[in-house]
Specification:
This protein is an all-alpha fold. It is built from ten helices and no strands.
Amino acid sequence: MRSAHLLKKERRLADHIDKNPVWREKQKMCRWILTWAGRLRRIYSMPKKTRRKLTRTEQRDLDIEIGFLEGVVQRDPQYVEALQVLGDNYTRRGKFVDGMKIDERLSRLMPDDPMVLYNLACSYSLARRIEQAATALLRALDRGYKDHKWLLKDPDLQNLRKHAIFKSIRARLRSRRISVK
């Protein structure tokens, strides 16, 4: 638990930020960047058969965005949208362990969200933690994840699909009368 002294400091800082027009402007900019980052992520993260390598410019831009989002998350660790974008950026940059840690934080903040659990399964699979990936994927399916066709071809889950444990997941999908090849 936080001490009363730390809570007072946090309240004073929050009051200062709310009253300071420069900080308010930075908050607006942060919201704007996160909104557009989320929109661009949805546009450009359409399913592709192969992942192409990032150019140097894309890597640099991604590193700048990661640095910015790390600062936002450090300031507000409960900021779910910033955590989601940060986790996606870590994964796109190839920092799978860092992305997995962010997805674990998100799963603690939103334990019943099927998309968060699915992303956690993808992160575990990329980090070659197959048993944990299978557990997270089963939890996502139990909580209502429905894009079964994408699940069968998602490149992030390739390590899991190669493992024998995935046969039980596929059997579970079939038992729910979902047509799965």
